[in-house]
Automatic annotation (TrEMBL):
<protein>
    <submittedName>
        <fullName>S-adenosyl-L-methionine-dependent methyltransferase</fullName>
    </submittedName>
</protein>
<dbReference type="Pfam" id="PF13489">
    <property type="entry name" value="Methyltransf_23"/>
</dbReference>
<dbReference type="GO" id="GO:0008168">
    <property type="term" value="F:methyltransferase activity"/>
</dbReference>
<dbReference type="InterPro" id="IPR029063">
    <property type="entry name" value="SAM-dependent_MTases_sf"/>
</dbReference>
<dbReference type="GO" id="GO:0032259">
    <property type="term" value="P:methylation"/>
</dbReference>
<keyword id="KW-0489">Methyltransferase</keyword>
<keyword id="KW-0808">Transferase</keyword>
Length: 241
């Protein structure tokens, strides 16, 4: 699948079902689990306990409606989000969320940027980030290696990248469409790649993207998904440029 096609399929899908999917209880619980892990590991991420200590700039890539940005807002000074879905970007930029903070998102796909997107990236100062996070999105990218390379390019030297996704799962092999629909995800299969993220592959991806150090940690608790999905386990991959 070409980058334009998969990005465009993801845009349409999230415009259609994203808002209702984020209201599903299991997705709310998953978001809380991710947030709790991040907040318990701020030092590991290189994030100060509060934003007055050191100015920090965060890139939230494939930001959706802003789960990661909201969690890290008390700890960083500037946040820039990017998502391929214009609907998600509108939700992210709603005044209730941004709440006078230096926090905003634009619609873009780093794998298939149009001239207008490249312009918006420059105007929004989408470079020299201290931290980049991409949460639950690696399994949607046409080329995860190229995407991580593009994200690491936007980090300052010494900056860190955090990647969160399902460990050791071919998400594309998950149950058939009907079951995914019942879980509130809509016809999601056509928005997925067939990657499996293991400790070895994540460390290789992060190093291949330009990180001098990379580590992979499994979430200590499993995540409970509806019905036939059963329990799955998240990973947190951290790279340092
Ligand atoms: C499962 S959601 C995760 C959202 C958010 N990061 C979170 O953890 O709640 C995946 C997000 O990736 C976005 N996405 C998919 N492909 C993308 C691409 N090529 N570029 C930017 N965003 C993309 C989707 O629009 C969607 O908002």
């Amino acid at each position: 699948m070409s980058a334009d096609n998969l990005g465009e399929l993801n845009r349409k899908h999230m415009n259609d079902v994203g808002e209702s999917a984020f209201k599903q209880q299991w997705i709310v619980d998953l978001g809380n689990q991710i947030t709790a892990y991040i907040l318990a590991h701020l030092e590991w991420l290189g994030t100060p306990p509060n934003k007055t200590e050191k100015p920090m700039k965060l890139l939230d890539y494939a930001c959706g409606n802003g789960l990661i940005s909201k969690a890290l807002l008390p700890h960083v000074s500037t946040i820039r989000g990017i998502d391929v879905s214009d609907k998600m970007v509108d939700l992210y930029n709603s005044p209730a969320r941004t709440n006078n903070a230096d926090m905003s998102a634009i619609q873009a796909d780093l794998l298939a940027p149009t001239d207008a997107m490249l312009d918006a990236l420059i105007k929004g100062e989408y470079s020299d980030f201290d931290i980049a996070v991409t949460s639950m999105a690696l399994h949607h990218f046409a080329d995860p290696q190229l995407m991580l390379t593009k994200l690491v390019e936007r980090l300052a030297i010494g900056g860190r990248i955090l990647v969160i996704d399902w460990a050791n799962e071919a998400v594309a092999d998950w149950p058939a469409e009907g079951v995914l629909k019942e879980a509130g995800l809509g016809d999601v299969r056509h928005t997925l790649n067939d990657s499996v993220f293991t400790e070895k592959s994540v460390v290789e991806l992060l190093k291949g993207a330009g990180c001098r150090e990379a580590e992979f940690v499994l979430c200590p608790e499993t995540s409970k998904l509806p019905g036939v999905f059963g329990e799955k386990r998240l990973f947190f991959g951290l790279g340092t440029k």
